[in-house]
Amino acid sequence: MHVKAQHTSLIKTEAKRLGFLSCGISKAKFLEEEAPRLEKWLNQNMHGEMSYMENHFDKRLDPTKLVQGSKSVISLLLNYFPSEVQNPESYKISKYAYGTDYHFVIKDKLKSLLHFIHEEIGEVHGRAFVDSAPVLDKAWAAKSGLGWMGKHSNLLTQQVGSFYFIAELIVDLELEYDTPATDHCGTCTACIDACPTEAIVEPYVVDGSKCISYFTIELKNEIPSEYSGKFDDWMFGCDICQDVCPWNRFSKPHQEPLFDPHPDLLSMTKKDWEEITEDVFKKVFKKSAVKRTKFTGLQRNINFLKSQK
Q1: 161, 229, 238, 262: which has the highest count of C-beta atoms within 10 A?
Q2: Choosing from 62, 131, 260, 272, which is the catalytic residue?
């Protein structure tokens, strides 16, 4: 077995053992196709107040500028689809935020994978990324054959759907590279038709500044009144475009205990949310990604939904 093939096989086997759904590998080089797309998206202000999207433009497109001497981008998927969902008579939070903040969970797994590479292969330099640095996760995962970019701009995988996190290890090790997956959206427009704020402005292009997730998490000011009545009870994030996607019929519950929700989260009603205190917020979302919006942000979102009755 060729040494590159051997290393590749070792890494993929260990990724599975660590609980990752799948692992794909790409050559670390400039993302030619993504460059004009990202530039156009930024020029049209589709990132709204997310000004951090404008930073490090060159690093976003070229991993060798992020990790010197890098040769490979190892992309990994981790399932977060829950076995139980919230009480239907409740304000909703995105499924990815039910349990412990994914940044911590995945970072630990990536560190373990990097440690394994050091132990088994030797002196390999690399960095782990979990949507916290200028890395175009979805583009790399698609390049590595883990799925294709759906019309809702999320990564989609046959037999699996899209309820998973994407993370990367960028390393200075040459490996065997995977080939991109083909697009299986066909003529389906379920996600475009279902988006209540019409954020999917054309197939494969999402205007981030119109997305419910943006309004409920990223936006710091008041939510614009023209969106009143269009949030479909989402108070943190939004899963509509994923929920209606036919490929998500294949989603299977995750096996990661850290992603299990606080028991109170599933049973809370709208009334409970409207009366939530900061103490309850801290207890239910102790280690959750929901803390990003802070107690005041969640209250703002709930008040916005309440005012629509």
Answers
A1: 238
A2: 131
- The verdict on 137 and 244 lying in the same domain is no
- Asked if the structure places residue 184 within a domain, the reply is no
The rounded distance, in Å, linking the Cα atoms of 155 and 18 is 21
Domain that holds residue 214: 190-249+257-306
For residue 232, say whether it is annotated as part of any ligand binding site: no
pTM for the whole structure: 0.92
Lowest mean pLDDT among 43-47, 104-108, 191-195: 43-47
Residue 241 has pLDDT above 90, yes or no: yes
Same domain, 26 and 167: yes
The amino acid present at 179, given as its one-letter code, is T
Q: Is 264 annotated as a binding residue?
A: no
Distance CA 298, CA 22 (A): 34
| Residue 92: inside a domain | no
pLDDT one-digit tens code per residue, 63-119: 888 888 999 999 999 999 999 999 999 999 999 999 999 999 999 999 999 999 999
23 is in an annotated binding site: no
Active site residue 178: no
User: Which residue in 244, 161, 145 sits closest to 200, CA to CA?
Assistant: 244
H-type helices in 18-73, by residue range? 34-43, 57-61
Answer whether residue 21 is part of any domain. Answer: yes
Give the count of domains, the chain. Answer: 2
Q: Are residues 147 and 281 in the same domain?
A: no
